[in-house]
């Protein structure tokens, strides 16, 4: 038997539904079976990580123990002291395993890839959030089993959505009333159905049926035209964008649906992103829990420090430096290849341009028309800018130019 | 309390450059796009300096700080 990637096959859904049944019956009658929850989590994790060779599972265990050690030594330190450099060292230590795993393709070192397991990024986001909020004093106490339960909450373990500890805690400490639970089951079933449509029908159509064909066509122009550019590449851009959205949004819907069945209101990850009016709007609608994580734990903190210490004066400069830092980090997080980094820089530039436009618009509000047509144009333009960025992200240019 | 509100409206006007901000003390500043992340941080830093309060970024739960009335209430609690 091999590892089963969450939500990827009918098998997974069958196992999941069988395991969920006692949890759902319990919630229906107003009970949470903590011991059973734990056992179900262990079984799902075994299915996900201990299938074929066990290296992923072993890495996961060591990773969780390591992050636990960090969080709890920092918690006990923070009760007495609050030194900025100690805090920074803890954050660095918490992300080191992820950094190593991300550097792996660059170093091609066999031993490093041993650390890797599915979902390490998402677990790291959660651990770092906890360390930062312990520093801020908003998390005052956390028990080891609460930490593990939050980190290893199986519906979201492989790719998010990234929940927040205090929000998650509120849900699991509470048993929903019958009415609330009926409501949750209702939205859960809807999301599950929408997820099936997105991932296994629309996503499958674009990703499995269409994309390989368009890719072959696109690559057939390699060396034939200047830079290998062709209309096929334009088609690839749209097909890939559709695949990326429907596949990931479908997966996220599953994760939220299964959370709902367990009485947890995991936040949604997408809100009609292709209807965004501008690029800022887009980041409030696309992979929301990730962009809000970056906003709250990187961008706002960086802005806060820069403004407080008056390192820079001009607020436009401050905001722009913030965007470049933020999107570069996001690019590096996706992976150490040139196209992820260019993707990051591209979005930083788009945000800077967007801000400049908004400032201009504010000043010339009277001269600039605003109607249904301009709104449609804004959505159209944003959609195309976003699809272009996904074309960079897809790595097709790497295949076309360098490989 | 009215003093605090007046001061907060002043801060919001300085940061956003909009003269009509805060006319409605229950206006949702985030939903209506008055405050973006950058403006939010500027408001936070100014609140800290002007009122001598400590507001960590993660304490800044958007639902609790979304209107002039709510900000005034939080400031009073933290002062």
Automatic annotation (TrEMBL), chain A:
Keywords: Acyltransferase, Cell membrane, Membrane, Transferase, Transmembrane, Transmembrane helix
Gene Ontology BP term (one): lipoteichoic acid biosynthetic process
Subcellular location: Cell membrane
Membrane-spanning residues: 12-30, 35-52, 58-77, 84-101, 107-125, 196-217, 237-261, 316-333, 339-357, 377-397
Main localisation: membrane
MF-aspect GO terms: acyltransferase activity
Claim: Acyltransferase is one of the keywords in the record: yes
InterPro entries per UniProt: Ac/AlaTfrase_AlgI/DltB, DltB, MB_O-acyltransferase, MBOAT_fam
Domain of life, per lineage: Bacteria
Membrane topology: Multi-pass membrane protein
PANTHER family: ACYLTRANSFERASE, TEICHOIC ACID D-ALANYLTRANSFERASE
Record's function text: O-acyltransferase that catalyzes D-alanylation of both teichoic acid and lipoteichoic acid (LTA). D-alanylation of LTA plays an important role in modulating the properties of the cell wall in Gram-positive bacteria, influencing the net charge of the cell wall. Catalyzes D-alanylation from DltC carrier protein.
NCBIfam families in alphabetical order: LTA_dltB
Name of protein: Teichoic acid D-alanyltransferase
Source organism: Companilactobacillus kimchii
From TrEMBL, chain B:
Main location: cytoplasm
UniProt entry keywords in alphabetical sequence: Cell wall biogenesis/degradation, Cytoplasm, Ligase, Phosphopantetheine, Phosphoprotein
GO biological process, one term: cell wall organization
InterPro entries: ACP-like_sf, DltC, PP-bd_ACP
Location in the cell: Cytoplasm
Ranges of residues in domain Carrier: 2-79
An MF annotation (GO) of this entry: ligase activity
Ranges annotated as spanning the membrane: none
O-(pantetheine 4'-phosphoryl)serine PTM sites in chain numbering: 37
Pathway involvement of the protein, from the record: Cell wall biogenesis; lipoteichoic acid biosynthesis
Keyword Ribonucleoprotein listed: no
One cellular component (GO) term of this entry: cytoplasm
Lineage top rank: taxon: Bacteria
Residue stretches in coiled coil: none
PTM description: 4'-phosphopantetheine is transferred from CoA to a specific serine of apo-DCP.
Family the UniProt entry places it in: Belongs to the DltC family.
Function: Carrier protein involved in the D-alanylation of lipoteichoic acid (LTA). The loading of thioester-linked D-alanine onto DltC is catalyzed by D-alanine--D-alanyl carrier protein ligase DltA. The DltC-carried D-alanyl group is further transferred to cell membrane phosphatidylglycerol (PG) by forming an ester bond, probably catalyzed by DltD. D-alanylation of LTA plays an important role in modulating the properties of the cell wall in Gram-positive bacteria, influencing the net charge of the cell wall.
Name of the protein in its database record: D-alanyl carrier protein
Lineage of the species this protein comes from: Bacteria, Bacillati, Bacillota, Bacilli, Lactobacillales
């Amino acid at each position: 038997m091999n590892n089963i990637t969450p939500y990827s096959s009918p098998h997974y859904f069958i196992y999941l539904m069988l395991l969920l049944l006692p949890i759902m019956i319990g919630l229906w009658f107003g009970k949470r079976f903590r011991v059973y929850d734990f056992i179900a989590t262990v079984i799902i994790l075994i299915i996900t990580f201990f299938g074929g060779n066990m290296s992923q599972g072993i890495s996961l265990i060591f990773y969780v123990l390591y992050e636990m050690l960090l969080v709890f030594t920092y918690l006990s330190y923070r009760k007495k002291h609050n030194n900025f450099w100690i805090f920074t060292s803890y954050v660095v230590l918490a992300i080191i395993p992820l950094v190593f795993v991300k550097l792996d393709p660059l170093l091609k070192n066999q031993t490093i890839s041993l650390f890797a397991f599915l979902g390490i990024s998402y677990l790291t986001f959660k651990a770092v959030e906890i360390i930062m909020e312990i520093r801020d004093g908003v998390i005052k106490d956390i028990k080891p089993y609460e930490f593990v339960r939050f980190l290893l909450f199986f519906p979201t373990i492989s790719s998010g959505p990234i929940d927040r500890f205090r929000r998650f805690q509120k849900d699991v400490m509470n048993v929903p009333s019958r009415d609330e639970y009926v409501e949750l089951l209702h939205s859960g079933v809807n999301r599950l159905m929408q997820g099936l449509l997105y991932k296994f029908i629309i996503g499958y159509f674009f990703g499995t049926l269409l994309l390989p064909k368009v890719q072959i066509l696109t690559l057939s122009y390699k060396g034939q035209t200047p830079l290998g550019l062709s209309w096929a590449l334009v088609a690839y851009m749209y097909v890939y964008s559709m695949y990326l959205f429907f596949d990931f949004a479908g997966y996220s819907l599953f994760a939220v649906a299964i959370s709902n069945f367990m009485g947890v209101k995991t936040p949604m990850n997408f809100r009609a992103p292709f209807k965004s009016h501008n690029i800022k709007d887009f980041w409030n609608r696309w992979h929301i829990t990730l962009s809000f994580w970056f906003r709250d734990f990187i961008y706002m903190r960086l802005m806060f420090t820069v403004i407080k210490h008056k390192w820079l004066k001009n607020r436009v400069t401050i905001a722009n430096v913030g965007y470049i830092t933020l999107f570069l980090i996001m690019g590096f997080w996706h992976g150490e290849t040139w196209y992820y980094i260019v993707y990051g820089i591209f979005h930083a530039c788009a945000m800077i341009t967007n801000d400049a436009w908004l400032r201009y618009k504010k000043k010339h509000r009277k001269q600039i028309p605003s109607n249904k047509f301009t709104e449609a144009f804004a959505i159209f333009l944003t959609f195309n800018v976003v699809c272009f960025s996904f074309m960079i992200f897809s790595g097709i240019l790497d295949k076309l130019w360098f490989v | 309390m009215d003093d605090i509100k007046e001061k907060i409206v002043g801060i919001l006007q300085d940061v956003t450059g909009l003269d009509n901000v805060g006319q409605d003390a229950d206006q949702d500043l985030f939903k209506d796009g008055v405050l973006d992340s950058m403006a939010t941080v500027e408001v936070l830093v100014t609140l800290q300096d002007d009122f001598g309060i400590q507001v960590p970024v993660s304490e800044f739960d958007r639902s609790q700080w979304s209107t002039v009335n709510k900000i005034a209430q939080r400031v009073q609690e933290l002062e």
